[in-house]
Structure formats: C-alpha cells, structure tokens
Design brief:
Blueprint (H helix, E strand, L loop, with lengths): L4 E5 L2 H7 L11 E4 L2 E5 L10 H20 L13 H11 L19 H5 L4 H19 L1 H9 L4 H5 L3 H17 L2
Parallel strand pairs: 1-3
Antiparallel strand pairs: 2-3
C-alpha cells in the first residue's frame, strides 16, 4: 500500500463539517477513501459512541483503504459498491465490531440474506451482522476465500462454487446454530 493520510477531528461537529455532511447522524464517526481516512477523536466521540467503539471504527475505516488497494484502486470493479455486504462486513470483522445476533431479536426465518444486507435501505443490518457474516465465510472457506471475494467483488459462485441461494441458506443455518441456539 501507499501512504494513507489520517485525519482526526476534535468533535463530531468538526468531523461532520469536514466531510461536508453537517447533519450526519451521530453514529457516523468515520469515513474512508482510497488513501485517506477520517474520524472523530475517540476522546470526544459524541452521544452514539465511546472511546472503545471509535478505536474499533478507526480499524474499520483503515480496512476500507486496504480493501480498495486489494482491488488495485479500481473502484469501477466494485460497480457502485454492489458487494456492500463484503465491503462493510470485512471492515466490521477486522475492526472487531461483533454484535451478538441474540441481541437483535433475530429468528431463523428472519435472518437477512445477501440481497437484504446489500440494500442501502437496511443500512443498519450489515453493520450489525457484518462481523458474523465474515466469521461464517472464514470458518467455512478460509481466509484465502475472503481475498478472492474482494478481488472478484463478492462473486460467490465463482469463488465459493455455490449459488447465492445456497450461500444464504448455509449462512442462516450458521447464524442459527452458532449464535441463536446455544
């Protein structure tokens, strides 16, 4: 990777102003581009975060920079981030942002599949389940498959050799057996 610039802002208001989104929600404390990431100071994280959660968020945003470099700065390969489940899931996983699925009120029949996790209208779901999604992929197919998924923009059939429907069924079984029934 080339040099990555890091910008830390003293308050949530300063951070939101710097990213030209003054009315951003309080949970938005970091963002990334190809060679830069920005975040609010963990010493003044605002009402939605703590020092520890901002520190995890810093790793999350840096992971986005790494992700971009793995696809060799070719954001057009990512086709408007159509594998958002991978983009945010991997950043949540590497940032250690685990959310216990038991706390989400999930039942086996309402666990979202990839299509739902990709939907910007369901923005919160990928942040809540991203860690567990990557945990599932790593446990079933290994770390090398994660890198291949990044390089292919999340092409499940090419990398994992299964359909998205089969993936969703396996994912739901994993969440149920690993996180909801023990």
């Amino acid at each position: 990777m080339t040099k990555t610039d890091v910008y830390m802002y003293p308050s949530l208001e300063d951070y939101h102003a710097a990213i030209n989104y003054p009315n951003a929600p309080a949970w938005m404390v970091g963002s990334a581009t190809i060679d830069k990431f920005s975040f609010v100071s963990p010493l003044n994280p605002g009402p939605a975060h703590s020092f520890a959660s901002v520190m995890k968020g810093i790793v999350h945003e840096f992971m986005h920079c790494v992700h971009i470099h793995v696809v060799k700065n070719n954001m057009s390969k990512m086709k408007d981030n159509d594998a958002r489940w991978l983009w945010e899931g991997l950043a949540c996983y590497e940032g250690g942002q685990f959310v216990d699925p038991k706390t989400l009120g999930l039942l086996p029949d309402n666990i979202p599949g990839l299509e739902e996790l990709n939907d910007p209208e369901n923005e919160e779901e990928i942040y809540q389940l991203g860690y567990v999604l990557i945990e599932f992929i790593r446990s079933k197919w290994g770390q090398k498959s994660i890198v291949k998924l990044i390089k292919t923009n999340g092409d499940i059939s090419k990398v994992l050799k299964i359909s998205e429907k089969d993936f969703d069924n396996m994912w739901k079984d994993y969440v149920t057996s690993r996180h909801l029934t023990n």
